[in-house]
């Protein structure tokens, strides 16, 4: 599968073994980054191969060693910043495509589920198994909230409604993470 944004084409790949992933990344003449390579429980292997359209047939690769858990890594593209955020295992990593470097890394308290980008507020909500973390588009943490296993998220204006498995629902202000009375 290919994704095109700004001056880049991204090919998403899945590999059966770490050896295959490393070989694929070794073919990237513009360099590569391997995320979570030190994990002892890696089970699944993914890559995003980036080809800047202005540089001909040259490639930059980002590989992910995932623990499996039944959750595939997610990526969130921010064309204005030329950045890709990767969410996997218990981590979110932002990669700057201009300088091909890790821009930020955020450790999570529980398994990553998905991103909720809020462009108008310049905020990205990171939904995890039992937490929500709000960050800026540049990766600066704004707030965290955790209570129980999250079963549903709903956004209305500047309010984030959360349903939990065994706890009562909560409503948070998206901008500061404070509880809001409903």
Written overview of the protein:
It is a single chain. The protein has two domains: 1-107, no CATH class; 114-182, Thrombin, subunit H (Beta Barrel). It is 5% helix and 54% strand. It has one helix at residues 18-26, and strands at residues 2-5, 8-15, 32-35, 44-52, 60-66, 74-78, 83-88, 91-96, 101-107, 112-118, 123-128, 131-136, 141-146, 150-156, 159-164, 170-173. The strands form four sheets. A five-stranded mixed sheet has the order 1-2-4-5-3, covered by helices on one side. It is globular and about 55 Å long. The mean pLDDT is 93.
Task: Give the tags.
mainly beta, Thrombin, subunit H, 2 domains, five-stranded mixed beta sheet, four-stranded antiparallel beta sheet, 1 helix, 54% strand
Care to give the gist of this entry?
This protein folds into 2 domains: 1-107, no CATH class; 114-182, Thrombin, subunit H (Beta Barrel). The protein is built from 1 helix and 16 strands.
């Amino acid at each position: 599968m290919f994704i095109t944004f700004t001056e880049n084409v991204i090919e998403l790949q899945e590999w059966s073994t770490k050896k295959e992933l490393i070989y694929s990344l070794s073919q990237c003449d513009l360099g590569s980054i391997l995320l979570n390579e030190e994990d002892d429980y890696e089970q699944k292997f993914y890559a995003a191969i980036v080809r800047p359209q202005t540089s001909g047939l040259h490639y930059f690769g980002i590989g992910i060693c995932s623990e499996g858990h039944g959750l595939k890594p997610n990526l969130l593209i921010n064309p204005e910043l030329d950045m890709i955020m990767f969410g996997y295992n218990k981590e979110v990593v932002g990669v700057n495509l201009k300088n091909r470097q890790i821009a930020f890394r955020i450790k999570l308290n529980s398994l990553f589920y998905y991103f909720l980008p809020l462009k108008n507020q310049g905020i990205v909500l990171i939904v995890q198994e039992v937490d929500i973390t709000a960050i800026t588009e540049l990766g600066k943490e704004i707030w965290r909230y955790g209570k129980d296993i999250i079963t549903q998220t709903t956004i209305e204006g500047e309010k984030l409604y959360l349903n939990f498995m065994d706890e009562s629902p909560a409503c948070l202000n998206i901008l500061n993470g404070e509880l809001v009375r409903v």
